[in-house]
Specification:
Two copies of one chain form a homodimer. By secondary structure, the first copy, chain A, is α/β, with parallel strands linked by helices. Chain A has two domains: 7-175, Stage V sporulation protein AD (Peroxisomal Thiolase, Chain A, domain 1), CATH 3.40.47.40; 184-336, 3-Layer(aba) Sandwich (Peroxisomal Thiolase, Chain A, domain 1). In chain A, 32% of the residues lie in helices and 22% in strands. Chain A has helices spanning 27-30, 52-69, 91-96, 113-127, 141-148, 204-223, 239-252, 264-267, 283-299, 317-321, and strands spanning 3-5, 9-11, 17-25, 40-41, 81-84, 104-106, 132-139, 164-165, 168-175, 184-189, 232-235, 261-263, 280-281, 305-313, 328-336.
Chain lengths: 344, 344
């Protein structure tokens, strides 16, 4: 049975294993520093489909199919899907899995969705509802641009603080008995919405950094751990602007992240060569990086304990037009492959 | 610990109580047959706010505040919020609870959201993650019309199969120890997406009925129960067209719902006098009806066992414009106030 520790963190007593995972990406992501790490990449933006929306559905489908194909024979196939995305009404996920025949739980956490789906799937497996459950999310540059920003054909200039929505997806299958050596989800932390009044939709990093700082500080306090207890504190997609803000915010609270922090939005593109300004963003950013490169490195032994906090900006085109501020959220999970950490 | 029974149903071992609940609605709903049952109703469509979107946020906030105010002193206040809505990027929920200071889990199930939030909140309490958790959702006629259909000013004529989006909201607070006499969530069933190819956005009942039939038939088979084992089989918002289709689809599978079925979309308006064509719809339809009238009647002893299946149409304005069909989903929970039913 799960146990609440501290204010908001949940400790899982029988931590589900990450039994299989897959990360996929588009062409621009393949040309970045992690290009060789993805399980599959696509050459064009439509993946042979008629619309970008259908391409995004294909990304999500492929992520789950590839992950399920890697499951050890002893591990049950997923019995439920926890998924979400950025398209209006989460249609990328709904359409992607409408033929799956599996119970489907739609989630919305904007770009924090990878952590939210992992947390919910882990909780359902811990609770005994499913022997195995899939956590899936992704995003597509072209669907996000047209929905949240401007028509691509307009060719608008991007602000220096703007991030580039990743075309990519990730899927992780959590299992009650995933075998030894697998990373395990040992703690989860549902984020508290934090809104400091940022209204600049071209600076999501600034809007999300306070939520990330809150979640990470709360989790460290709840578990009585320090940044040094983790091999990596990985944020979702704060990018270069939000990443620097996060480290500064946490430094003021007495947490030094200098040696342990990285951000999927800072890792996925080559800042000098790829013209992405403040880095990557979108649900697919942390999903594709975590479910390929990061989980692979955990299996290789490079990381034994990761605090993964994915961040989301909970705005819509309508809320932006109405002049509302941008609420941020950060959901987090602790992933461990070695000995379980001591928490209070 | 929860236990999977049959194909997809989850039996909760320590069923969380519905410790408190509140249902709110707008002016048109107050003029309907259930008008006197709501905890609070609003006179105008903006509730004194500047925009309809803000009015919808107010509905959700009020629902949770009113429910929390009814909690017995012995019951802990909610430690997390599970919420969702129909606005793009679920902004009604995010903005409503951004000052709550509580862990927030965003869910998307279209009009099935009341059952989805109840199921997720119940699972989190059963798992031990929270001592109490809130399930909240709602909808607003004006925000839904402008987002999914046509500008209100256009005054478009409605098809006979069209449903009227309810302005309303509901909140239920589930607790591990909610005291005796409270209704309890004893089973949950995450729906499987079902799409028979309906593309008519003015006939959501037809798009959702097959999903409702699937969920109800699966749950009855999984639990080895019949429709007569329930005092009420309550669907979310199939309305008159979808409700009739559901009963016909289930009759063909050998389940006779004649005596036990009702639908929140058929209950909330006076079909003859209120010009709502096929009935009510929207997340707020089943949320406001369940969290006021139905739970109240359970407490009065009229119903002891309810199968509540809320239905959702997983479309977006974009998917409709691109000619895609409308995937349906129905999430369900079994709510019992008396002796627990025998399942296999």
């Amino acid at each position: 049975m799960a146990q609440r520790i501290g204010a908001h963190t949940v400790r899982l007593e029988r931590p589900p294993s990450v039994a299989a995972h897959a990360g996929l990406a588009g062409k621009k992501e393949r040309e970045g520093p992690l290009g060789a790490c993805f399980d599959k990449t696509f050459e064009d933006a439509r993946f042979g489909k008629k619309t970008w929306e259908q391409a995004e559905q294909t990304l999500l489908q492929n992520a789950l199919t590839l992950a399920a194909g890697k499951l050890p024979r002893t591990c049950p196939q997923p019995e439920a899907i926890f998924a979400g995305d950025l398209q209006n009404q989460c249609t990328a996920s709904s359409f992607a899995f409408k033929e799956s025949g599996l119970p489907f739980c739609g989630l919305y956490g904007a770009c924090s969705t990878m952590a939210l789906t992992l947390a919910m799937a882990a909780l359902s497996v811990e609770a005994g509802a499913f022997r195995a459950a899939a956590a899936v999310t992704g995003s597509h540059f072209c669907t996000a641009e047209r929905q949240f920003r401007k028509p691509l054909e307009y060719g608008g200039q991007r602000a220096p603080t703007a991030q580039w929505t990743v075309t990519g997806a990730g899927a992780a299958i959590l299992a009650a008995n995933g075998g030894p050596g697998n990373p395990r989800i040992t703690h989860l932390h549902f984020g508290t919405i934090t809104d400091l009044g940022v209204t600049d939709g071209a600076n999501m990093g600034a809007a999300m950094a306070p939520a990330a700082a809150r979640t990470i500080a709360d989790l460290l306090r709840d578990t009585d751990t320090t940044p040094r207890d983790y091999d990596l504190i990985l944020t979702g997609d704060l990018g270069f602007v939000g990443g620097a803000l996060l480290r500064e915010l946490l430094r003021r609270e007495g947490f030094d992240l200098t040696e342990t922090h990285n951000d999927c939005g800072m890792m996925i593109y080559d800042r000098e060569k790829q013209d992405v300004h403040a880095g990557g963003s979108g649900c697919g950013c942390s999903a594709s990086v975590l479910c390929s490169h990061i989980f692979d490195e955990m299996r290789r032994g490079r990381y034994r304990r990761i605090l993964f906090a994915a961040t989301g900006a909970l705005l819509s085109a309508t809320s932006a037009l109405q002049g509302a501020s941008i609420p941020g959220i950060a959901h987090a999970v602790v992933i461990e492959s070695g000995e379980r950490m001591t928490d209070r």
